Amino acid sequence: xxxxxxxxxxxxxxxxxxxxxxxxxxxxxxxxxxxxxxxxxxxxxxxxxxxxxxxxxxxxxxxxxxxxxxxxxxxxxxxxxxxxxxxxxxxxxxxxxxxxxxxxxxxxxxxxxxxxx
Length: 117
Fold this sequence. Notes:
The chain has 2 helices and no strands. By secondary structure, it is mainly alpha-helical. The chain has one domain (18-116).
């Protein structure tokens, strides 16, 4: 069963949001694991110091991950704009060539009919 276009777009948008959420949750889990591994090397830390070190490490990792994602998203938007512009130019060019071909065929047909009389 196919859905109407509006529902398809909503479904795709929801899928993108779920995928983004899952990706971010995985990023958090990786940051937490790396923070624990980093703190493991500092056996002299007290429990409070260790927790603070892990919290700071996680915070910094997530800040960098967010910056990376924002850069990727900005580049994707930029590329999308470039490709949309290229597509628009190609579409106009194709329409122009088609109209030129139709005009040429029309002129050739008219000329052939005029000479055949």
